[in-house]
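Forum: Protein Structure Q&A
Topic: Joint prediction for protein chains with partners

I've read a bunch of threads here and the consensus seems to be that you should model interacting components together rather than docking separate models afterwards. I'd like to see that in practice. Below is the full input, 477 residues plus whatever partners are listed. Could one of the regulars post the assembled result?
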Amino acid sequence: MVRENIIEFKGTKNGILIYIKPQQDFEIIKQQLIDKIEKAKYFFKGAKIFDIHCDTLTAEQKKELEVFMATRYKIYVLNQDERDILNKSEQMETVFTGITEGKTKFVQGTIRSGQNINYDGNVVILGDVNPGAHITAYGNIIVMGSLRGVAHAGSNGNRDACVAAFYLDPTQLRISDVITRAPDGHYEKPKIPELAKVKGNMVYIEPYLNRK
Amino acid sequence: MGEVIVITSGKGGVGKTTATANIGTGLAELGYKVVVVDADIGLRNLDVVMGLENRIVYDIVDIVKNVCRLKQGLIKDKRYSELYLLPAAQTKDKSAVTIEQMQKLTLELKENFDYVLIDCPAGIEQGFKNAIAGADRAIVVTTPEISAVRDADRIIGLLEASEIRNPILIINRIRIDMVKRGDMMDIDDMIDILAIDLLGVIPDDEAIVISANKGEPVVANQTALAGQAFKNITRRIIGENVPFINMESEEGFMSKLKKIFGLAK
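Posted by a regular:
Agreed with the consensus. Here's the joint model:
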């Protein structure tokens, strides 16, 4: 009988993840895990296992595998608390929060069709953003000129990010996972500087200066 | 030492070749020694527009491959003794010439001429890269259409990335009557988006088609408005300060005519 490969190892930033196919006999899983680790003993010695993923494994079985790997092969398996801390810090990293005070990139000049600006912070463009150009930022996007291209603020999930421009007339405007576009046909062009923000599930565009 | 000017647009059919032929002729008329180079290998047109197709023996590929000498490949114009054409090869493609070969060629031409005008092919691939390789300045041609302006914008970005700063703009085929009705992009809108200096505006003129078919650049035509516009462009290239043609006055003339026939209010 050809044995099906039921265990997969994946390297991640936080350690090795073990994926085990569901609906398998526990003894087979155990045997195959031993075989796999035996084959690369030196690689696994002192390695850090982040977690074991398997939908049908009970908590006791999972614990047994962990203890077994730790004692027999000196593999370090993270406990639940350590996992939580790492998961949390990863989330902190993914959503950029520095929209009121945080790192910012300043770009001077006109951003033309085909040009892209990507930054994991706020972006300020000292110039125009033309149709066909893309600005993507984890934080806010401020255009000290005309914004006619595509702007994506809060691109990794921050819905509080905003887009502002002296002349806000983008091809498409994205804030986090909310996407809007310019209306079809004729529409009233902006006359004063404006700011776009998400409220509810909609992007609202309004002037940000109180005086006319 | 002369100056190498590439005439480019991104989009096809906006009038690069027409502009090259007319500016070249215009500069020659002002007494400069000029060579126009067709960089559109495989789809050559410049020779046809200038009416020199039947004189071609060698082409640009022959010159860079050292099949012939530079002097042998240059074709003298029918009317102006100081105007030369370097035709493209028709049976090869853009990869027949490399960027280094183009740079060497333009450098050699620059030593012998006051102005070297390069007619760039449409697109942003090898042909475009070759055409701009040896250029000192760039003229971007566009028409009042959104697609042409978009492509021009992309081209300006690519030119800036290739260290060719401050390209200048020609807006071709404008129809003032349509602009006034609001059916065509107006000049200010285009300059607003592209944010570069305007070299000139060419009206949509049937004289262009007529003269191209005859193989005589329209700039030689004293009466055509387009010819006058090209003449002004050439004078601006050599550094003169020429006011823009007031196309309103032409419109004024037309409306006067209309008034005579009782068509206008």
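Residues 59-73 of chain A form the longest helix (15 residues).
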